[in-house]
């Protein structure tokens, strides 16, 4: 076994171990920082025992201050991934290098390195987007139960903060995690409006926007918050029910669009790694157009048609309620 192959396998193993350790962390970075202010002895002990690299901290501060650092931090918070901005960039870099190296080991050609590097570069981004979508659907499905629990708490004499605290204890994740952060932020002195805005920043849900707006308006002009949330709860429950029915009825269209779009790409990649000469003949000299202009034009047209077809089918299945 060549040293290059051994090095590639070792890097891949280290990457998998690092991802598993980071994702399996019990507490998020936000909760660790809030633990410095709230009465959370475990968070303080974890921070005291942690031995972080000075270089890692320095790189993270510099990256977080960049123009894209805040956007990346927001995307990671929406996906509830326990990564700093610097760690996420490092993961993209390692994934790009490792997948590119593995592609070169499978098929020793410079084009294989480019293909592998592109796949490795976009794989972490695709995973983050997927986690955001799954988490948002779960949150919206739990929103009706959250409103019912909040309304019952307010009618029983709880304050708004106490009702939110009961939500953080009674409901499952991700609802409990997000409202625990809201309660912790209010406990350290952040106004409720700001804490709810932060919640909406992490969970870009239209239904949640209704709830946050209702709470903010009630705090300014007064009124019976339990009655307002009870009315909103009925509306949101009907929206969730209709969205679920639409999601089931359009599942075939969405799956067909994804599968039909991925089949040509997957087939082309498989043929390239199995028989690069067969794919390479696509770029042979042409009597009409010089090499490799004809093949490149055809590839561009194919990619454009696949992309257009995918977005058209997804648009057909995207029914707003």
Total DSSP helices: 15
Assembly of the depicted chains? single chain
How much of the sequence is in beta strands? under 5%
SSE-based structural type: mainly alpha
Mean pLDDT: 78
Helix content: over 70%
**Main pleated sheet:** none
What sort of overall outline do the alpha carbons produce when their principal axes are compared? elongated
Distance between the termini: 58 Å
Summary keywords:
321 residues, Receptor-associated Protein, 3 domains, mainly alpha, 0% strand, 80% helix
Describe this structure in words.
The longest helix has 46 residues. The protein has 15 helices and no strands. It has 3 domains: 131 residues, no CATH class; 112 residues, Up-down Bundle (Receptor-associated Protein), CATH 1.20.81; 68 residues. With 321 residues, it is mainly α. The protein is elongated. Helix 6 packs antiparallel against helix 7 and helix 13 runs antiparallel to helix 15. About 9% of the residues have low confidence.
Short description:
This protein is an all-alpha fold and 321 residues long. Helix content is 80%, strand content 0%.
């Amino acid at each position: 076994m060549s040293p290059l192959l051994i090095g590639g396998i070792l890097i891949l193993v280290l990457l998998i171990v690092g991802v598993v350790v980071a994702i399996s962390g019990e507490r998020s970075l936000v909760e660790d920082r809030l633990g410095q202010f709230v009465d959370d002895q475990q968070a303080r002990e974890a921070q005291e025992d942690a031995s972080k690299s000075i270089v890692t901290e320095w790189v993270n501060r510099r990256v977080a201050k960049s123009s894209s650092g805040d956007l990346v931090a927001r995307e990671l918070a929406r996906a509830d991934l326990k990564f700093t901005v610097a760690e996420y960039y490092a993961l993209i870099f390692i994934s790009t290098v490792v997948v590119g190296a593995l592609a070169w080991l499978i098929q020793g050609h410079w084009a294989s390195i480019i293909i592998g590097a592109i796949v490795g570069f976009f794989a972490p981004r695709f995973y983050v987007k997927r986690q955001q979508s799954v988490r948002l659907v779960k949150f919206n499905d739990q929103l009706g139960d959250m409103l019912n629990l909040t309304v019952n708490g307010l009618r029983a004499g709880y304050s708004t903060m106490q009702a939110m605290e009961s939500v953080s204890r009674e409901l499952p994740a991700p609802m409990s995690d997000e409202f625990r952060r809201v309660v912790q932020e209010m406990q350290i002195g952040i106004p409720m409006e700001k804490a709810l805005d932060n919640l909406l920043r992490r969970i870009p849900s239209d239904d949640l926007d209704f709830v946050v707006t209702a709470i903010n308006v009630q705090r300014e002009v007064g009124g019976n918050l339990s009655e307002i949330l009870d009315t909103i709860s009925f509306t949101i429950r009907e929206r969730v029910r209709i969205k679920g029915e639409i999601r089931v009825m359009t599942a075939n269209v969405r799956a067909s669009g994804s599968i039909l779009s991925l089949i040509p790409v997957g087939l082309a990649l498989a043929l390239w790694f199995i028989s690069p000469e067969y794919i390479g003949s696509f770029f042979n000299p042409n009597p009409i157009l010089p090499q490799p202009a004809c093949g490149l034009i055809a590839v561009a047209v194919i990619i454009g048609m696949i992309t257009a077809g995918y977005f058209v089918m997804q648009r057909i299945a995207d029914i707003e309620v």
